[in-house]
Design goal:
Blueprint (H helix, E strand, L loop, with lengths): L5 H28 L5 E3 L7 E3 L12 H51 L12 H10 L1 H8 L4 H18 L10 H10 L5 H16 L6 H30 L1
Antiparallel strand pairs: 1-2
Helix pairs in contact: 1-2, 3-8, 4-5, 4-8, 5-7, 5-8, 6-7, 7-8
Length: 245
């Protein structure tokens, strides 16, 4: 849970990086293959004559017929080099554009994920139903927290919390992960923010980190779940009192 879009973003980022590297290598090969500017000399009784370098003895034409063939081969070689160069430039530009688009999309997802839910109480899920479901399942969340390793227990308790929210009618928005949606709706019960962040942080650590969690982490999660249940009950009672008034 909570991984929507991560795999695709990482895969396409690697593709863009590989394409950029390949196109850059092609551009470097093209730059190395571009021939130098021919040296031109002129005498008192002759027009401009191309001066070939010392390394060009093998290719120096011995007659006018050979010169025509030599010039034709040079033109064809230059055209091919120019074509390869422009293809390389285009590939580099395309790869950079793709990488930029992916970076912007990742930035937008990050900004959306950090935005708190401030929807009006009259819109969205039935908070009374959700509050009742959370209060009724509080003991079971603590029970699953105590099973298995600390990491397994923390993940199981958070998963049960999300399952309870979904069963009570909370739907997952396409632009948000299940964890972000759960945190957002719990904020609407005026729960302690540090408690909420501690619990969500422990879940992410247990689910994604490679180091082992300890019984101290489990105890911290238990305290956070207990405080969360108390805040939800208090908010639900206040909501019912306002409804009767």
């Amino acid at each position: 849970m909570g991984t929507t879009g991560r795999g695709d973003g990482a895969r396409w980022s690697r593709v863009a990086l590989a394409a950029t590297a390949a196109a850059t290598a092609l551009l470097a090969v093209w730059a190395a293959s571009v021939p130098g500017i021919p040296r031109v000399i002129s005498g008192p009784h002759m027009g401009p004559v191309t001066q070939y370098g010392a390394d060009d003895d093998v290719f120096r034409p011995s007659s006018e017929v050979d010169a025509q063939s030599f010039r034709s081969a040079s033109v064809n070689g230059d055209s091919l080099a120019a074509l390869v160069g422009w293809v390389a430039v285009g590939l580099v530009g395309l790869a950079l554009l793709v990488a930029l688009v992916l970076a912007l999309r990742a930035l937008l997802r990050s900004l959306q994920g950090s935005r708190a839910v401030e929807a009006d109480d009259t819109a969205g899920p039935d908070l009374t139903r959700i509050g009742t479901a959370l209060a009724d399942d509080a003991e079971e969340r603590l029970a699953v927290l105590g099973r298995g390793t600390p990491a397994e227990g923390i993940v199981a308790a958070w998963d049960r919390l999300e399952d309870t929210l979904r069963a009570a009618g909370l739907t997952l928005a396409a632009s948000r992960t299940s964890t972000e949606t759960a945190v957002g709706v719990l904020r609407r019960f005026a729960v302690d923010e540090s408690t909420l962040q501690t619990l969500a942080g422990l879940y992410r650590e247990a689910a994604w980190s490679r180091h082992e969690l300890t019984e101290e982490h489990r105890a911290t999660a238990e305290a956070a779940l207990t405080r969360l249940a108390a805040d939800v009950r208090s908010a639900a009672a206040a909501r019912e009192a306002d409804a009767r008034a």
